[in-house]
Design a protein that fits this description.
The structure is a single chain. This protein has 3 helices and 12 strands, in the order ββββαββββββααββ. It has 222 residues and is an alpha+beta fold. The protein folds into 2 domains: 38-115, no CATH class; 122-220. A hairpin with a 6-residue loop joins β5 (100-104) and β6 (111-115). The chain is elongated, with a radius of gyration of 20 Å.
């Protein structure tokens, strides 16, 4: 059978859900999950074995199965201030996306959330940066606009590939505007054009995330 609250599969004789604690007896537990709530938990994700580059990943479970509700920008393990900001940005995004904070998981930063299926009237979007190709002389980059959807994260826009000499464009937190425009002209143009495209498609700006290029947007679900 399945938990009547969170949909976790349980033994047929279970009295309580081992995941959310919901009593299973004297309820309408059935052989198919009934979804009173979707659930979500924030976890850390690592890009390599050493854990030098990390991000916060919001894993959600709903009627359609498991999906990613949101993901922070990547950050280095020495960037103490940034990983606090990255976690905070995920928490803020989930709350704006209709999730209700319900406590912590097994680790101090494993925030847990829930929301009713279909209980959202807007979608959120944040621009991310990715290194596409690196050569001896230069690096090729690309900006992506990633948005929340009921079924998870989807790309809603992307910039053309552009070249930049910086090896660390994707992890810079701040950049002086004048120097940025002079030394990173192609990146500036690519980001500006992607922003314009998003705005023309009905996205409204709601601020900047934990990276200088991590522009954030929101729009109503039609």
């Amino acid at each position: 059978m399945f938990c009547v609250n969170c949909g976790t599969q349980l033994p047929d004789d279970a009295n309580f859900c081992f995941k959310c604690g919901k009593p299973q007896r004297d309820t309408t537990a059935t052989n198919e999950p009934t979804w009173e709530w979707e659930t979500c938990e924030i976890r850390r994700q690592y890009s390599d074995r050493d854990g030098n580059i990390q991000c916060y990943w919001a894993r959600a479970v709903g009627p359609g199965g498991e999906y990613t509700a949101w993901q922070s920008q990547w950050f280095g393990w020495k960037e103490d201030t940034l990983w606090h900001q990255a976690r905070g940005s995920v928490v803020e995004t989930l709350i704006q996306d209709g999730w209700q904070h319900i406590g912590r998981g097994s680790e101090w930063d494993n925030d847990r959330f829930r929301r009713q299926p279909g209980g959202r009237n807007s979608e959120l979007c944040e621009i991310v940066c990715e290194k596409v190709k690196q050569t001896f002389m230069t690096v090729e980059w690309k900006f992506w606009a990633m948005a929340t959807r009921p079924e998870g994260i989807h790309c809603v826009g992307e910039s053309p590939v552009f070249k930049d000499a910086s090896l660390y464009l994707d992890i810079l937190t701040q950049m002086d505007t004048k120097k940025y425009q002079r030394n990173h002209k192609d990146a500036y143009i690519a980001l500006e054009n992607l922003e314009s495209n998003l705005i023309s498609e009905g996205w409204g700006s709601i601020g900047v995330g934990c990276r200088w290029w991590a522009k954030r947007f929101k729009r109503d679900i039609k």
